[in-house]
Amino acid sequence: MLTTGVESLDELLGGGFAPGVLTQVYGSFATGKTTLAVQAALLSGGKVAYVDTEGGFSPERLAQMSKARGLNPEESLGRFLLFIPMDFKEQRRVIGGLKRVINREFSLVVVDSITAHYRVEESRRNLTADLGRQLQTLLWVARKHDIPIIVINQVHYDSRAGRMKPVAEHTLNYRCKDILRLDKLNGGGMRAAVLERHRFRPEGGMVYLRITEKGIEDAFIDQGQNQAGQTPRGISS
Ligand SMILES: Nc1ncnc2c1ncn2[C@@H]1O[C@H](COP(=O)(O)OP(=O)(O)O)[C@@H](O)[C@H]1O
Ligand SMILES: [Mg+2]
Question: Could you please report the per-residue DSSP string of the chain?
Fold first, then answer.
């Protein structure tokens, strides 16, 4: 298990990000998806393949988080292998290439996000099948090397459901066995992480988090009520 760096979140996830599995982390902008992925990467100790399609990866932020944890920023950055595909086609090539790139030195793969390019080109034919194939490749890599893979996803407003939903929900949920949703709480910097699906943990559990210089931290408020599995709905914007 790969630690998230937050004790309560590790517990929620049954120990952390699981090897051999695609974990989907989704939520609206600035909910902390990138911060969480970078934090897990930082703490993984090994090499990390980071596919950045949104330009959300920041060496400055990584350095800040490293220093706040007493780690060497240059050493941390040196463990990241950064890929920046400019469109969905390049993303397909990059993800296909991971089959050759990943070896035993790697402890994590992050795709941040898998749907940014997909959304732009959504009207093109066969795009969903292509997305499915990319996820299939990622799953192969996760299993082959027994490492966790974090698949970050965006949200869109589903008018039929009347609420925010993950993009390409069916295609992603078919392959992502563990699903974590990040929400902004009204006002302030508080965030909530809700377990939407897990292989062996009850769904609906949630923990409160905040984003700090260090990265993602426990918000240390009374979570007694939520251990019972209360899930707030519709607070994500
Ligand atoms: N040093 C910091 N201290 C506190 N919050 C920060 C710091 N750096 C960035 N943030 C906050 O992190 C949030 C962005 O998180 P990010 O992981 O990029 O979100 P996402 O990937 O979901 O869009 C913003 O709300 C920003 O204000
Ligand atoms: Mg991001």
Answer: -B--S-HHHHHHTTSSBPTTSEEEEE-STTSSHHHHHHHHHHHH-SEEEEEESSS---HHHHHHHHHHTT--HHHHHHTEEEE--SSHHHHHHHHHHHHHH--TTEEEEEEETSSHHHHHTTTSTTHHHHHHHHHHHHHHHHHHHT--EEEEE-EEEETTTTEEEETTHHHHHHHEEEEEEEEEPSSTTEEEEEEEE-SSS-TT-EEEEEEETTEEEE-----TTGGG-----S---
> Closest-lying ligand to the alpha carbon of 53?
2
**Any idea which fold 7-179 has?**
Rossmann fold (3.40.50)
* pLDDT, mean of residues 71-76: 97
Ligand 2 centre to CA of 212 (Å) is 15
User: Above 80 in pLDDT, residue 232?
Assistant: no
User: Which ligand ends up closest to the CA of 38?
Assistant: 1
pTM above 0.90?
yes
From the CA of 56, give the closest atom in ligand 1: 18
Ligand 1 neighbours (beta carbon < 6 A): 27, 29-35, 56, 61, 64, 211-213
